[in-house]
Design a protein that fits this description.
It contains eleven helices and 13 strands. It has 374 residues and is an alpha/beta fold.
């Protein structure tokens, strides 16, 4: 255990009972300060972060869809919606980072409160609703940092604006992509958040096909494009999406987004509302999602014979969790909720654990572990 788990997290979660969204806003402000290039104190802090959090080892490196990943552990979308920390996520030890979800139109998101911790479940319930400043604002921010942001691959996760009708979704995604396509290393079509009305219906074959078609026609710079799917889909629907990934030559699939299931939760009452989680709308991330996301990863791997790269996300808190996702078929993995609960040292701890797993299994690189237990 480190100082975050022993002292800071109990203070914020239990003693002060700090509101989850307020705490997130303070973290974003800290990222903004750390990102100031001419700020000498910020520079010293960044150097300290690099020394304590980063771990480089060639056995963890991969080259996928034309990008070099120094390690397989990335930051999932949802934390840095506007790209505030784009140029410094590498200092936290991540091998890549995914910004967003960003929409073409700026939007405030859903009414507060909309972000809740479920501590007994090591989970978070959110119904943020794609709150962000819009694709144009992200493009302006990233364009001003272009020389700094590619220490690690940077992905951009795009969603449909709430004001855009479902029948115009393809154009909405296209507009965001046009503004950002020169600035991201890979792109994600998010059609699986439960917090925008009707969004998950875009996972339907016809609707998703129309989105992927216009994006790939616009994709003259050949940027890798992923689709992020829900864990609550039936196997047949996932198989249909795999078919579309092949048809439109997608770079891969991200499995999975948050779940709308509530079974098996231990947390009985949410502090901010004094209501049980079952009475609150939104998606759940963290440990309750772990097994289902791994099942989906394994299904995609088997259906594609490992030919379509998978980014696995959902319930990763430890090296054991990460190893489970990778050996089920994930080439890369992402964290968000686990990072909140475990703290900044989690990244280095997981990477150290993965190196131990490679040694135990007499493997020379993380690539050899992908799909090992399928």
């Amino acid at each position: 255990m480190d100082i975050y788990q022993i002292g800071l997290r109990p203070l914020l979660f239990n003693v002060l009972k700090t509101d989850a969204e307020w705490l997130h806003k303070q973290a974003i402000r800290s990222l903004n300060w750390l990102s100031q290039t001419n700020n000498v104190p910020a520079g010293l802090v960044n150097q300290s972060l690099q020394r304590s959090l980063c771990l480089r080892d060639r056995r963890l490196e991969q080259n996928l869809f034309g990008l070099n990943f120094p390690n397989p552990l990335g930051l999932a979308a949802g934390f840095d919606k506007d790209g505030v920390g784009a140029k410094i996520w590498s200092n936290f030890g991540f091998g890549f980072a995914e910004l967003g979800t960003v929409t073409f139109h700026p939007q405030p998101g859903n009414p507060q409160p909309r972000l809740f911790r479920l501590p007994l479940d090591q989970a978070v319930l959110n119904r943020m609703g794609f709150n962000n400043r819009g694709a144009a604002a992200m493009a302006a921010r990233l364009a001003g940092q272009k020389e700094f942001i590619h220490a690690i691959p940077i992905g951009i996760n795009t969603g449909k604006s709430k004001v855009t009708p479902l029948e115009a979704a393809a154009e909405d995604y296209l507009n965001s992509f046009r503004l950002l396509k020169e600035l991201g290393d890979y792109f994600v079509v998010n059609v699986s958040s439960p917090n925008t009305p009707g969004l998950r219906s875009l996972q339907d074959t016809a609707m998703l096909s129309s989105i992927l078609d216009v994006l790939q026609k616009e994709n003259n710079t050949y940027k890798p494009i992923f689709v992020k799917i829900a864990p609550d889909l039936e196997w047949e629907a996932i198989a249909d999406i795999i078919g579309l990934a092949k048809t439109y030559q997608l770079a891969g699939i991200i499995a999975t987004n948050t779940t709308i299931r509530r079974d098996g939760l231990k947390t009985q009452v949410i502090d901010q509302t004094a209501k049980p989680p079952q009475d609150e709308a939104g998606g759940i991330s963290g440990a309750p999602l772990r097994d289902r996301s791994t099942e989906v990863i394994k299904f995609i791997w088997l259906q594609t014979q490992g030919q379509i790269p998978i980014i696995g996300v959902g319930g990763i808190f430890s090296a054991e969790d990460a190893w489970e996702k990778i050996t089920a078929g994930a080439s890369l993995i992402q964290v968000y909720t686990g990072w909140i609960y475990e703290g900044p040292m989690m990244v280095r701890q997981i990477l150290t654990g993965l190196l131990s797993k490679l040694e135990q299994n007499k493997l020379n690189s993380i690539t050899e572990a992908i799909g090992l237990k399928v």
